Amino acid sequence: MGPSKTKGRRLPLLPLRGLLVYPSMVLHLDVGRDKSVRALERSMVEDHMILLCSQSEVNIEEPTEEDIYKVGTIAKVRQMLKLPNGTIRVLVEGVSRAEILDYLPNDEFYEVSVKELPEQETDDPEVDALMRSVLNQFEHYISLSKKVTPETYAAVSDIDDPGRLADVITSHLSLKIKDKQDILETVDVGERLEKLLDILNNEREVLELERKINQRVKKQMEKTQKEYYLREQMKAIQKELGEKEGRAGEVEELRSQLAEAGVPEQVKEKIEKEIDRLEKMPSTSAEGGVIRNYIDWLLSLPWNKTTDDDLSLSKAEAILNDDHYGLEKPKERVLEYLAVQQLVKQLKGPILCLVGPPGVGKTSLARSIAKSLGRKFVRISLGGVRDEAEIRGHRRTYVGAMPGRIIQGMKTAGSLNPVFLLDEIDKMAMDFRGDPASALLEVLDPEQNNTFSDHYVEVPFNLSNVMFVTTANALHNIPRPLLDRMEVLYIPGYTELEKLQIGTRYLLPKQKKEHGLTEEHLVIKEEVLLQLVREYTRESGVRNLEQQIAAVCRKAAKHFVSQEQTEILEPLELTSELLKEWLGPSKFRYGLAESENQIGAVTGLAWTEVGGDTLVIEVSVMPGSGKLTLTGKLGDVMKESAQAAFSYTRSKAIELGIDPSFHEKNDIHIHIPEGAIPKDGPSAGITIATALISALTNRYVNKEVAMTGEITLRGRVLPIGGLKEKSLAAHRAGIRTILLPKENERDLRDIPDSVRHDMQFFPVSHMDEVLQHALLPVQTEEKAGTSIL
Questions:
Q1: Is position 39 within any domain?
Q2: Statement to judge: residues 770 and 621 lie in one domain
Q3: 726 an active-site residue?
Q4: Residues placed in the known binding site
Q5: What is the pLDDT of residue 723?
Q6: Which residues form the Lon proteolytic domain (predicted)?
Q7: Using CB atoms within 10 A of its CB, is residue 223 exposed (0-12), middle (13-18) or buried (19+)?
Q8: Greatest extent of the chain over all pairs of C-alpha atoms, in Å
Q9: 679-710: buried (b, 16+ CB within 10 Å) or exposed (e) per residue?
Q10: Which of 35, 376, 679, 726 is catalytic?
């Protein structure tokens, strides 16, 4: 059809969705939109001509002028057929390019004024060269793509018209509508062929890349299918041989476990490598068992499993108070940890060290901490551990190798953030097998333990979320570098009042339950329980008290069982007389350490690993040649204190009213009773000096006074440690006056109020003040047993 003679030709417009028609193309269209149907009907009424333009967006149901491309194709409607579903199928033939000049007012359908864009004729040789290049590239494209048949190339190669060639080839390519529209809008033939050549080059590169990827995927699939086929064959062979799937079944099970385990990538690679080794290993090989054991360990460790912390302060406080009486500082520390966790959400686990005598509840406190946090609890005892491999594990080259206790504990806990109790950390030893305390440095260092290395596991394990709690009876047995990494919380021991409360609230109900007794069976009043505390126990903790209560419950159980035979069951009240009958005579004398004022005998205070204690230091002066004798199994420090006290007494002899030559005429014997028990420590200096001066001056010592402090040669009183434990011991012994070094005055705040208000504390800085408080005045010496303090 020739070009229009008019400037603007009126034609109905049919917008196409996801489709584009070139001149010379013949194809079927399905038309369903109302406006499009009416446009077709107008076309059939007039000259069967219609303009086909593509929409820029496929999803638009009612396109506007902006949604339809300006350049389209004038087409002739060859055939029209109404389908049963209401749509119309038409056969159209593209005639020529056309550009929309203007949209004409019409509400029924789109009507436009168009200008035809006739095909340019050219005999430029460059166009011929471009045609050949395009045909070559199209041939390559067909060889790579399965979407275009070789017959299409034969049909295309016969086309002589360059413009038509470009249109037909473009119509066979799988391109975006935007790219096809670009070709349609290019009127210049040479430019159109160049654009098509670029498109064909890009498409060919993409197809080549796609082909390579497909080949690679196919090879991988073939390999996987081959492995699967071989494994199935192996299973069938093993089944025939009666090996019950053998190693292959084992490996398959391990692979499925690994897929479900959710371990870190680094660990996953390690396990996969070990599974591959296991798979290739003969089922008779001994090393197979070693590898299987190693894989089981790696799979069973909690690499990513954690428990959610219960950060409720009130709930935690209630749990701690229900489980333990007293212990204010440890409880406060746990609540502080919870408060910080609430604010920062993520905090490295603290390392707490609970230090105190046996039986004060260190281990049970750690268990309560786990309960209050809602965490798993795991405990290992380090008492007697002397092998470094106990902490770090053995290397896998050794027969019977296994992980260390830390990794074993983490497996038991089953989470990354348990409360981990390291019990008796002060009882570790070292020998030729290494130093376990040094191996613990990495475990208990918050800066290092996020990559803890176990010799057996070989993969770094994260311990930074673990809340470590350690317990010890004495700090001096813990190496300094290890102690430096821990936060020390002292649990010094309990007062009588606290023991009474613990016995009433916890120990008695627990022992009654364990011995099958109810509240109605056995009644123990407070005053009888206090008698039990005072006369049958003398300890810092409550373990011995629990044993004595258990003994009472056993006696009561026997009593009720024998009574039941005669069908007489009445509540039994434990009286003071019945207590003595069941437990025997009092084991400890409650009251003053000394029952009367004495010459040369002074009550001293001592600290031991099991709490504080009182000890009496005795000095006896006899005619002789100046020999100084020390007995009572004293350590080196105590012997030096005695020598210092002796030298001080000689230097102050005239001031004290002592014969300056006493050391030449007399033998002096210093003795501390209970000679079989080793005694040592730097806190008996003033006690020895007071006893020595009392013996030499023949003055009485006040029986109600106990003292602690080190002495210098000039009589200064030096500070000591363990004042709280010593004060509790003095209180248990019935002593009400304590002399302490002036510099220890700051430690008085640690002493419980019930003890501090029941006793008098006199801080002293010089030996003169000690003597002033301890020795009775000369005029009352004849009245032995009285005190003017």
A1: yes
A2: yes
A3: yes
A4: 356-363
A5: 85
A6: 596-777
A7: exposed
A8: 155
A9: bebbbbbbbbbbbbbbbbbebbbbbbbbbbbb
A10: 726
Per the structure block, which two tokens stand in for 787?
Answer: 């005190």
Contacts of residue 341, defined as CB under 8 A and 6 or more positions apart, other chains included, come to 309, 311, 347
Q: Which residues pair with 351 in a beta bridge?
A: 468
Q: pTM of the predicted model, to two decimals?
A: 0.59
The series of mean pLDDT values per 10 residues for the chain, 789 residues long, is 55 87 86 85 86 87 85 89 85 88 85 85 78 81 76 78 82 82 82 83 84 83 82 74 61 78 82 83 76 85 84 84 82 84 76 86 87 88 83 84 88 88 84 76 82 86 87 85 86 79 87 84 84 82 88 86 62 83 78 72 81 84 87 85 88 86 87 73 85 89 89 89 83 85 87 84 90 76 35
**What are the start-end ranges of the E strands in 286-426?**
351-355, 377-381, 419-423
Q: Which contacts of 652-660 are long-range, i.e. CB under 8 A and separated by 24 or more positions? A: 652/715, 652/767, 656/693, 656/696, 656/697, 656/771, 657/697, 658/693, 658/696, 658/697
Domain encompassing residue 338: 313-490
510 Ramachandran zone, left/alpha/beta (phi>0; psi -120 to 50): alpha
Residue ending a domain, choose from 583, 618, 644 = 583
Distance between first and last Cα of the chain:
137
Residue 189 lies in a domain: no
Angle between helices 125-144 and 189-241 (to 10 degrees): 10
Which residue carries 């209180």 as its tokens? 731
User: Total domain count for the chain?
Assistant: 5
Alpha-carbon distance of 364 to 324, in angstroms, equals 9
Whole-number pLDDT of residue 378: 92
- Are 138 and 169 contacting, i.e. CB atoms less than 8 angstroms apart? yes
Q: Taking phi first (over 0 means left), then psi (-120 to 50 degrees means alpha), and beta for anything else, what does residue 404 get?
A: beta
Which DSSP category does 596 fall into? Answer: S
pLDDT on residue 443: 84
Both tokens assigned to 330 = 């440890």
Q: Residue 707: beta bridge partners? A: 604, 739
Structure tokens belonging to residue 576: 């003071």
Q: What is the DSSP string of 251-272?
A: HHHHHHHHHHH---HHHHHHHH
Do 621 and 632 meet the contact criterion of CB atoms below 8 Å apart? Answer: no
Catalytic residue (choose from 43, 145, 464, 683) = 683
* Annotated binding-site positions for ATP: 356-363
According to the model, what pLDDT value does residue 593 have? 60
Query: For residue 135, is it within any domain?
Result: no
| Backbone phi and psi for residue 287, each to the nearest 5 degrees, phi listed first | -70, -25
- Distance separating alpha carbons of residues 110 and 11, to the nearest angstrom: 9
Give the integer Cα–Cα distance in Å for 135 and 142: 10
- Please say whether the beta carbons of 423 and 381 come within 8 A: yes
pLDDT at residue 7 in the model:
57
